[in-house]
Amino acid sequence: MSDRVLAAIDSSQFSEGVCDYAAWAAKALDAPLSFIHTVDNHAQVAEPDLTGNLGLGTREHLLEKLSNIEEQHAKVSRERGRLLLDAAKVRAISAGIADPQCLQRNGTLVETLVENEKDVRLLVVGKRGETAHQASGHLGSNLERVVREMHRPILMVPKQFTQPHNVMMAFDGSKTARKGVEMLAKSPLFEGATCHVVIVGAETAENRSQLTWALETLREAGHTAEGAIRAGEVEETLRTYKQEHNIDMLVMGAYGHSRIRQLLVGSTTTTMLRKAQLPVLILR
């Protein structure tokens, strides 16, 4: 099970996208695919203050009922998870995956993913989980924690799958970003796709040298590569380039120079990712 694609699913609207992108990635990487569903038994019903309540029965009786309710809820959650995993397996098989594996674990999502990351080549997750408000513009809190704590590439996906043909990498010339270009060049995920490298900054000799290196690295690996240096505010500049070139996947490093870094981690997740309707591959 080493170097597998691991897809985290729940009952959110993003799970079909997770299944389809995970199947696409597993085939492209020639890697085994595993689906994982977590049942969080950590959340407990708060013990009520029954002082002064009349006609509600004894404290012990009520606590016993609460315990029974929690137990029933856990059973329902596990069964729902098994049904979700079964459906994901059927969907993956129909997409051409020979033997997808299904895992169900107790615990929080973040802790479970971190515990299982040692043999993961790529983690696929939805933008928001089932507990997030569907109308919210924010990324799910679990995803933000996963980005901070995982040490594997993470593919954040939208609700519907689209085959990537134009991939854009926000590049800042940092050591992490250069490593990201090298990972992108070596990855079979983007075979046949055009790779766009964008530096947001001034047209300087240093930036031009960095862009030339990135494009040559990609081209030497057999990729079609285009690039640009554009001055402006990071979010707006990248969004404009994305629209002009029909970008259908964004590749970014989770850490880099401050302006790029703030797109993914920081006190506030920025508008571009909150409203992203395209998949985002986050490199570590």
From TrEMBL:
Transmembrane segments: none
CDD domains: USP-like (cd00293)
Pfam families hit by this protein: Usp (PF00582)
Domain of life the protein comes from: Bacteria
Species of the source: Vreelandella boliviensis LC1
InterPro entries tied to this protein: Universal_stress_UspA, UspA
Protein's recorded name: Universal stress protein
Family in the record: Belongs to the universal stress protein A family.
Domain (UspA) ranges: 1-158, 168-284
Lineage: Bacteria, Pseudomonadati, Pseudomonadota, Gammaproteobacteria, Oceanospirillales
